[in-house]
Write a structure and sequence with these properties.
Blueprint (H helix, E strand, L loop, with lengths): L19 E2 L12 E4 L4 H12 L4 E5 L12 E5 L5 H8 L4 E4 L7 H6 L3 H16 L3 E5 L13 H27 L4 E7 L1 E3 L8 E3 L9 E3 H14 L8 E3 L1
């Protein structure tokens, strides 16, 4: 990928439906630094692209950051481990906003044994942010985390979740509690079922549980929500479900 073309708008203006729905991206002044943790793939990678397109300076943090295919004068790649306090402390220096978009491979080991990555990495991150800043954190978890568990029908809640996702999401529950109790200016984004489609800019961000539904969403549209939330901070101390 040759580089990032700056953009001032994505998609057509859309009316709100059951919550805040994204509109055209407004021109905004670049931040001094936004740290994206888990930037090398998935939502983290797409978020890095979206933030660069909006004119921000981005610090991309991941163990494989140096291999990222993005190139931009406003992009700084930092190779590091989200479980290493010293690595994170260095990455946080001079940062205004943190986006945490960690993921684990859904293989047999994670299905059977779960993970503690989310809770351990978030504990380290929150402690560092509380001590020295910054105070703004956008954290990505998922559909079924926290108080969204058990709200999406028999197929998901009764079959897929307990058989495949539960052990991983038990740790995401702990992660969410750490963020909510942090005292930081947080937003927790819970994407729906993730698909790899181009960005549309037509996501729905639903904070009211009465509006939640079992729907898909493109990783690139979750990234668009995160970039919009960086700009607008419409969901401070909220846990919106992000779906198409």
């Amino acid at each position: 990928m040759a580089g990032i073309k700056r953009a001032t708008s994505v998609g057509d203006p859309m009316p709100p439906v059951n919550g805040f729905e994204s509109n055209s991206v407004k021109v905004c002044n670049p931040m001094s630094q936004i740290l994206v943790i888990g930037a090398s793939q998935g939502i983290g990678f797409e978020t890095t692209r979206a933030l660069l397109a909006d004119g921000h300076h981005v610090r991309a943090f991941a163990r494989s950051a140096s291999t990222m295919s993005l190139a931009d004068t406003a992009l700084q790649k930092i190779s590091g481990d989200a479980l290493d306090r010293a690595d994170l402390a260095r990455a946080l220096q001079g940062v205004d906003i943190v986006v945490q978009a960690l993921g684990v491979p859904m293989n047999l080991n994670s299905v059977l044994s779960g993970t503690t990555l989310f809770s351990r990495a978030t504990r380290i991150l929150v402690d560092l942010m509380r001590d020295k800043g910054p105070k703004r954190l956008i954290c990505v978890t998922g559909l079924g985390a926290g108080d969204s568990r058990g709200r999406f029908g028999m197929l998901y809640d009764g079959v897929m979740f307990p058989l495949v996702l539960k052990r991983v999401y038990d740790d995401k529950d702990i992660q969410e509690r750490i963020v909510k109790d942090s005292g930081l200016e947080w937003t927790i984004a819970r994407p729906g079922v993730l698909v790899s489609s181009p960005v549309t800019g037509r996501y729905r961000a639903l904070a009211d549980p009465a509006d939640w539904d079992f729907k898909t969403v493109a990783r690139a549209d979750v990234a668009r929500f995160i970039a919009d939330e960086v700009r607008d901070a419409k969901f401070l101390h909220k846990t919106p479900l992000i779906i198409q």
